[in-house]
Amino acid sequence: MKTHSILIFLFLYSLRLTAQEIKTNESIQTVMQGIVTDENANPLADVTVVAGNNQSGAISDREGKFIIQLPAGKRVVSFSYVGFKTLKEVVDTEKVSGMFKIVLVSDNTNLQTVEIIGRRENSYKSSMTFAGARTETHLMDIPQSIGYVTKETMEDQQAFRQIDVIKNISGVNAFSTYSNDIVLRGFRASTYLINGLKSVSSGWSSAVLPYVEKMEVIKGPASALFGNSDPGGTVNVITKKPLRENRKSINFSTGSFNTYRLAGDFTGSMDTSGKFLYRLNLAYQNAGSFRDLQGGEDIVIAPTFSFIPTENTRVNFELVYTRTNTRLDRGQPIFGATATSNSSLLYSTPVSFAIGKDNDFLHDTNLFSTISIQQKISDKFSLNAFYMKSLYKENLLEHRTSNRYAVDAAGTTIPTLMEMRTIRRDANNHTDNFSVYGVYALETGQLTQKILLGYDYMQNLTPKSGNSAFNAGGYRNAANNGSISRYTAANKDRYLIVDNMPVPNVPHFDLANPDYSMSEISEYFSVSETNENTPSKYYVNGFYIQDQIKWKQFQLLLGLRKEYYTDVVSMGQADEQKVEQSALIPRAGFVYALRDDVSIYGTFAKGYQPQGSAIIGNSSVYGGPFDPLTSKIFEFGVKTELFRQRLMLTMAAYQIEQNNILMNAGNPDNPDMLRQIGQQQSKGIEMDAAGSITSSLSIIANFSLSEATITESENEAEIGTLMPNAPQSQGNIWIKYKVAEGKLKGIGLALGGNYVGKRNTQNATLQLPSYVLATAAVSYTVDKFRIAANFNNIFNKTHWVGGYDYVRLFPGAPRNTMVSIGYTF
Question: Where is the signal peptide (predicted)?
């Protein structure tokens, strides 16, 4: 793969060099220089500047500046960019002098309906969203709270994984350190979108970010837009798209835990007309960890191409390949804890402690390719289509706990020994996602409408081939020719007993004297007669309509979706069965502009999420069948843009209700078994701010107060209980100041703090303590070089980002440092 990536880069770069050699046949008489800004004097990058009939052209840089060569005489020079009205200026080359100042005016009727060209902003603020309404829409016009983190924030914080950036969004907290295992407004989340298309194959490792332009969280149920989704919110990852401006950068980082990271980002036009654009993101990381046996390597290769033959036709193709080689971290147990213990023993285990064997491994591979097309039929009507194919492949060997402590022959718990399981597994699944919709714009006086009509199809397949596992655990039987899943002292004669201890199938892990040496799994008895996974499949058909209505300062967003879900159980087997469900999902919201920079909004929406075996997992392991999740939300809020629209502030109040949620059943014989409880309710208030106060001072901050509780359950003792890993209060702030003038020009200083309140776990007797972490950064930019150093958890606070119970807790990183040097050319 490394060779292939080098070849791709050389191919693209050679094309660029070839393109640069193209010259017009006319003699060049005059050089015109200028700067392009919007109405608020903000510089605009990537504006296309064309003289005459494509006689010569240029692209504005990140400061809005451009240089174009003009043939003699009077020439018409056009300035165009998506989202702004095209401006044409007549320039007389005999009178050209000084710096031309060009101001483009926003045009909300000329926005992209499919994201082909990359985001033009280069700050902590992002003004537009595609996921909020399926077309490029200003966040001020969306009747819903949408949190986000831009690539600029990620770069300044030197964040490499998704779990490193979720703190920047209100109401979001980690449940564990697994892939997308987070809590949104009190609800555990699993819905993951890539450019608005659903992905269900992100694996165990937290998603890497080198190819990510922006990470959004659409707060509340988004089922009316995307079908089955979580009630607390939906994570949408926006990938980096090509830019017309030629820009290349490389960055090397190193730091704590023997971390080494190299990344490159290359983009630009492959021809002089700007019709063929490319972008290539490459990254490699080799890193240790503060956790024993953890760390590993990551590889990212992400090429993207855009073809824009005319303003009416736009095509984008992208491929993202990520590979992670590591070990699966199931968390850590507490030394000496039992089921009746309290959290006083929480600090008895060093955060570095882990359970496993040296020959354990996890190889996660994710591959997805996307093609998107926008065809503008007329000034009022456009057709848009997407297709994404994604693949997830897993190769795993792990020694993990059985989520309980060992026992002696009398059944007495031994809290220094962990009962163990071994899993050797190959797994893969494939997802096909197709979406097509039309957008029709109407205008009658002061009344405008944008009507969207569309169809989605999504299919996820777990085939028979390449999906099998070896599972070993429990205790050896008396004949020593097999195993029994759980030890029962009343049936002592059924087990092999040595030194008053039942002999485990997989040796116990001694917490006081850990042994990480290699283990030969062929010596264990498999606990299953067959270890071949049952193939599964589910597919979704969705039809939806949406209308965005605007009259003066008032806007309405109305949506309705009809969803058809089919779960194919025991696919290809004699007992194959199709389980079919359907739902009608509405969405309604309003926005009222008090001023151009202040609006209030309100929204109501319903959510729907099937819980069939193809989504939850094999019913023999996880239980079921389960009823689908249903939810609804009421939300009201205020949005404003401050400091010449540099800073966006969102304040929201909400109430979400969800029915038929799943929780761990606490089954000692099956630690993965789930159970369904009645109802959960979450209510709270949130504040998010992102952007700049001045051109030198940037900020991203958030704070939330929430209460997520069980409101209905067959077990009355659970009613009123706070949901796991859902803090009642949390907040984050990051402030950066960059010196713009004087002898200290180029120096940047940043300070940050992250607060998370107390959280329940799935064990009623264990609560994780609150914590406050302090961060800081210093950087220096000179010419095209940038040097930066980040200092995280400055006061070395011991903390836990999430956890299940006494035997599965996920500690956060201690004090650590990352240093980087980058070059842009």
Answer: 1-19
